[in-house]
Amino acid sequence: MQLGVALRARSWRLVTAESCTGGLLAAACTGVAGSSDWFDRGFVTYSYESKTELLEVPAVLIAQHGAVSAEVALAMAEGALRHARADIALSVTGIAGPGGAVPGKPVGTVWMGWVLPGRPAQAERLQFSGDRAAVRGQTVRHALQRLIDASAA
Known about the structure:
153 residues; alpha/beta; 5-stranded mixed sheet
């Protein structure tokens, strides 16, 4: 996997924090032989409570901005990094559907957050189309590409 090559080259280890993808990102990483060299762990924090308990996402952020927001995506990535033996973190939170849409956040809305050494934390809003499986698959593919690009930069 190209991501593993990029992370090994920098001696970086990855932690993931996932909501809408339910562990698919971690599964994609660990499906590659030798991924224990560069993948530390993954958190699946689907409920609000799991985000606050496992990643220390402040409940007030979720109340103020919703779980699908830049603020929560960043807090998830930062919390995952605090609770791992990793150098970089990537989080995803979104609305995969078919339900769950709210005004301003239609089905397919995904926020991704990442933290890289020596760089400010960043978040990105994405809008995917298709059914639940398509939204989740597109999210994983985009997340992996984002990590490859960031690791190469």
